[in-house]
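Q: For a teaching handout, I want to show students what a protein-ligand complex looks like in token form. Below are the inputs, and the small molecule is FE2/S2 (inorganic) cluster. Please produce the holo structure.
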Amino acid sequence: MPKIKFSKDQSEIIVAKGVNLRQALLDAGKPIASSCGGEGVCGKCWVKVMGGENTLLPPNEIEDFLKVKNELGPIYRISCQVTVEGDLIIDAPYW
Ligand code: FES
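A: Here is the structure, written as tokens, with FE2/S2 (inorganic) cluster included.
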């Protein structure tokens, strides 16, 4: 089962392989910005991936579009468009 570690406080959660990253964070009680509820429209749910990026599939078309629109570099992922397949280390400004 993949581990998601939060880079600032080094806390971790264990999630099921194949879960949606945004949903896994919400289920763990971590707030995540959004104005579209995970529909892939707002781009606000981005997180910084500090480790484990090699376990993720490349961004889909929606994520690519939102990253360009929001001027997000390669280290950022739009969490509602990401499937967790392995261990990750992530960060967001509000955790
Ligand atoms: S929650 Fe709006 S794009 Fe992810």
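A: Two things your students might notice: The longest strand covers residues 46-51. The chain has two helices and five strands.
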